[in-house]
Amino acid sequence: QTSYHDTDYAEAGRGAVRALDDHDLVCVHVESPDEAAHDGDAATKVAAIEAIDKHIVAPLRDALAGSGDGYRLLYLPDHYPRVASRKHDPTPVPFAMCGHKIAKAGGVSFTEANASEPAPHFTDGHDLMPYFLFNRL
Prior knowledge:
By secondary structure, the protein is of the alpha+beta class. The protein contains 5 helices and 4 strands. The protein has helices at 9-19, 32-38, 42-65, 112-115, 128-134, and strands spanning 72-75, 80-82, 87-89, 96-99. It has a two-stranded antiparallel ribbon with strand order 1-4. It has a two-stranded antiparallel sheet with strand order 2-3. Helix 1 (9-19) runs parallel beside helix 3 and helix 2 (32-38) runs antiparallel to helix 3 (42-65). The longest helix has 24 residues, at 42-65. The chain starts with 8 loop residues before the first helix and ends with a helix. The relative contact order is 0.13. The mean pLDDT is 87.
């Protein structure tokens, strides 16, 4: 694996799914969209995000949903890298959650247009994890 777009996304997804056998919490960090933004390469950033969706997020979601156990999945970037500036931006990052007993947050779907106004909004990033772990219907 590397941090760039030549990352083996499918192996990262398989590794994450395997880790579910022994761990209650699995985190997968993929740097390629960030690196593409630093290179000013929008097409590669989009391709990296699409590969993450297809080869990491979807297999994890499918494995979790098929496990019969309550589960939660949180998907987000670690910061907001902009292609235009090639730098990190202080904009709050968009995130998506799915899984067992998650309260609906304002009826907002996860789209490009809605990503600029995440609902709920967290000023401090460390407040997201308790929300993810303990948010209930």
